[in-house]
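User: Batch of two.

Assistant: Item 1 of 2:
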Amino acid sequence: MNNDCLMDISDIRELLPHRYPFLLVDRVVELVPGESIVAYKNLSINEPFFDGHFPGNPVFPGVLTLEAMAQAAGLLGFKTMQKTPADGSIYMLVGADNVRFKRPCVPGDRVYLHAQIIGEKRGIWKFAVQAEVDGKRCASATILCADRPA
């Protein structure tokens, strides 16, 4: 693991239950438990969704962008609470508000995923999330994740 990587794919797989093709976080580069996280997803033309979305003009599906942002938020939640799925805990996406897509993400992009904790109430966490490529915002939302028994 290099110096700018706080969590590599092995560390991420210990916290997120997702697996290929639905694990959408490749690396965590910044993490402040209780505050924020920056992670990224590298997009490759070899990803299965590009074959059908859209032929001749491949675009990372918006719902998967939202899911990637939620997975980054889940990692922040796990690290903040010092819990793991092995402890019987799982973070589930339970809501999304103010979802906006500004520009498409395409093969070859490194999509940076930002999540910041807004608050928590009775096991429901609220996050401000955004995705960006080359410093330009691609998507943003306010999401809710529930900390529930696995």
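Item 2 of 2:
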Amino acid sequence: MPATAATNVPHLTSPPITIRPAKAEDCDVIARMIRALATYQGVAERVTAKVENLRRDGFGPDRKFEALIAETNGHPVGLAIFQSHYSSWEGATSLQITDLFVDETVRGTGVGFRLVVEVGSIARERGCAGLQLNMVHANPSRTTLDRMGFMHQDDLLHYRLDAAGLKKLMEMER
């Protein structure tokens, strides 16, 4: 069902959703959802992470990210991956949602909203200054972010060097 049609589904008919911290045993599911998100965004070829990378970086001794899993009847239907982000301008830490995925079967039923609220609750408990997330322009859920109070920052442009770009930068003359 397209996301726009799903917004009309009454919450009373929605299956009960539980949200829990991800565990190392969830890395196969996390990898599947990351690939599904990238496919949805039309950039599936950019996903190179392996299950073992996720296990090491999310559940090892030097954690780089945290994740929440949304489930209905014990079946994973949503994912939020987040990490700390320090703002030198604010002199404070925020949490940044780097990946937010909701399975097509439950889009429009509030699963994404619930995941964002749960990460927001964690940010508040930790004394963070705010919550950030990035979203592709084509994502129809952008209007939901506006309703939640997120502000699009027109003055900021997101730039990234991938591994090949980083290698090229290191080879440039100084």
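The longest helix spans residues 111-125.
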